[in-house]
Amino acid sequence: MTEPASEESADASAVPAPSVAVDLLTTADVRQLLGLTQVRPTKALGQNFVTDPGTVRRIVRAAHVAPGDVVVEVGPGLGSLTLGLLEAGARVVAVEIDPPLAARLPVTVAAKAPLAVGNLRVVTADALAVTDVAYDGEPPVRLVANLPYNVAVPVLLTMLERFPTLREVLVMVQAEVADRIAAPPGSKVYGIPSAKAAWYAEASRAGAVGRTIFWPTPNVDSALVRLVRRDPPEVGATREATFAVVDAAFAQRRKTLRAALAGWAGSPALAEEALRAAGIDPSRRGETLTITEFASIAAARPA
Predict the structure, then answer these.
(1) How many C-beta atoms lie closer than 10 Å to residue 110's C-beta?
(2) Average of pLDDT values for 94-99?
């Protein structure tokens, strides 16, 4: 199978020697495992399983996974990406919501990567509710995942909020979702996911992924998006207060900030007061603001 074109930087292009001998999953393996687990892929859980070892290795390289890294993986499914992470020497905490898949994953790893069995911890839980993703008490430094399309943004934001030790994230999501997460202020797709992700990290597209490497084949293309942790804006506003401004500003995208933030502030006049105190022109619209500007407005809200 031809590997899809990559947008990776040159430092991720070389193929490193595997840290652990691993037999990565192929299309035949995926179909066999689906039969063994009696799992029928569902749209509700966004279950599309990666079947191309070359793509798996490309994702792991792009994620900058190093031997010994504690990596949390959300939605490991049948283990395609899990095996790639173990091959790179990572210690993997796999969070899987589907009990049959969670139960099967250690069996698959034992068969395909017997020397890496001790580097896997499986947590059967909803990623939106999980609170413990440590490996032997050590918190994760990376999140690498093929996220279900329908919950990609909530899962991503939840993990960044809940686990501040995550330094770098690389997730595969629907291409349009990747564009929204990585969009800069002023672009056509800049919105709530873009602004909220920017509170935690610097986001960028990290590669395109064709639909043919999945089973079953989805009807959309995918992409990789990278997020590198950074400090939140230092303007005296909390995340909750800042996100409230973001939500209000994008609830009425076509309105000026003076009008869009009237409900948040209590009136158009109070919204204008907060905007001017923050140094923001009240005639601007939410899609033009950086996350620092949103935080500045939150900090300036009249008492």
Answers:
(1) 12
(2) 94
